[in-house]
Design brief:
By secondary structure, the protein is of the alpha/beta class. It has two domains: about 1-250, 3-Layer(aba) Sandwich (Aminopeptidase), CATH 3.40.630; about 270-330, OB fold (Dihydrolipoamide Acetyltransferase, E2P) (Beta Barrel). It has nine helices and 16 strands. The strands form two sheets. Strands 1-2-3-5-4-6-9-7-8-10-16-15-12 form a 13-stranded mixed sheet, with helices on both faces.
Length: about 350
């Protein structure tokens, strides 16, 4: 029976047995929580008592080879099945790209995390295009059925290379709305002190939730990519305890933003690749947040040069192998403590 197989195997193994076109089914746990398998790798939980105060989405493996967050969500789901985690809030769990997980690849044909807010409509049909369409529909249905509740979405990833700040989050572009200290406090409680404030719209999963549903939504980077079974999940203990609070407590009052611990960056430049010969001047194994000074020639493409201005600036997610038209690197500028105070004074950070 599908229910027994799901509970015994766990979400990850069950999903990988049928990475596409799983048949939907539902059942109830002993504590009356309703569990619904909506599609391969997509599980919705509905607690019986309707004292909910937020609707939560947790996703991982939007890039298939990002195994630590996938294993983390797999364990979280097993703990919910075993009634070890109390669930008082509706929850949607998404394992994003199961066929790419099977091949230990970041993508099969295109980068799934560039296809949201409807961008998949501009691409030729392939697995990721269909999956983006399906995930948008399931996410939209979930948020719409809980539209009276504040929405939360943590899209969990791991980075290709090492990083001077092991865990960090991308705060989606807010379209002029202030950044929230309560959101930064939530991240700090998860063990994520380093945050990048985006400077423009994107077609990522977290931006979709933020822009369309005003969700407290982030892309969260939890360390470096490793193979399945090679991750030290004890590094995510703070994330576990904060998620337990998010999934159960009605109020999150205990979370406080600690400005002196925060490592905040503003994205100053999004450098896109326009030509096949785009290449960086530095070695791509450079850690995320490596800084370069004004005047440094970062990359070249045809006869054009990308040179650092108003430095120093740090690099994040450099990748010259991306498809033409996509982001090759983010340049970020560290906010000083006095920048943070100014942002508070000007109500950019509230
Ligand atoms: O390590 C890398 O170069 C990529 C890690 C990754 O997948 N990052 C996300 C960030 C999404 C965002 O900007 O919100 C991505 O590139 O999709
Ligand atoms: Zn990723």
């Amino acid at each position: 029976m599908a229910k027994t197989a799901l509970i015994q195997q766990g979400l990850l193994a069950f999903t990988l047995n049928s990475p596409q076109n799983a048949k939907p089914f539902d059942f109830e746990l002993a504590n009356n929580t309703k569990v619904m398998l909506l599609a391969s790798g997509v599980l919705q939980f509905e607690p019986k008592e309707s004292t909910s105060s937020r609707a939560i989405v947790l996703s991982a493996g939007i890039h298939g080879n990002e195994t630590a967050p996938i294993e983390f969500l797999d364990r979280l789901v097993s703990d919910i099945f075993a009634l070890e985690i109390t669930l008082d809030q509706p929850l949607l769990v998404i394992l994003g790209n199961p066929p790419a997980m099977m091949e230990a690849k970041r993508e099969l044909s295109v980068n799934l995390n560039r296809l949201f807010i409807g961008k998949h409509k501009n691409y030729e049909r392939c697995y990721e295009v269909e999956r983006a369409n399906q995930l948008e529909t399931l996410l939209d249905n979930f948020y719409q059925s809980y539209q009276h509740l504040p929405a939360y979405h943590l899209d969990l990833h791991t980075a290709i290379r090492g990083s001077k700040h092991e865990k960090f989050a991308v705060y989606p572009f807010t379209q002029g709305k202030p950044w929230k200290k309560s959101s930064l406090a939530l991240l700090q409680s998860c063990g994520v002190d380093c945050v990048l404030f985006s400077n423009e719209p994107a077609s990522t999963f977290s931006y979709h939730s933020s822009a369309k549903y005003n969700a407290v939504a982030f892309t969260v980077e939890l360390g470096k990519v490793h193979a399945f079974g090679q991750n030290d999940l004890s590094k995510l203990d703070q994330l576990v305890s904060t998620l337990q609070q998010l999934l159960s407590a009605s109020k999150l009052n205990s979370l406080e933003f600690e400005a002196n611990k925060a490592i905040l960056f503003e994205v100053s430049d999004v450098v896109n690749k326009h030509q096949e010969d785009f290449c960086f001047s530095f070695n791509q194994s450079q850690a995320n947040f490596t800084e370069y000074q004004t005047g440094y020639e970062l990359a070249k493409e045809g006869s054009e040069r990308v040179v650092i201005s108003n430095g120093p600036k740090a690099i994040v997610f450099p990748n010259d192998k991306v498809a033409i038209g996509q982001r090759a690197v983010l340049l970020v500028k560290r906010m000083t403590q006095s920048d943070i105070v100014q942002a508070e004074k000007k109500h950019r950070l509230i």
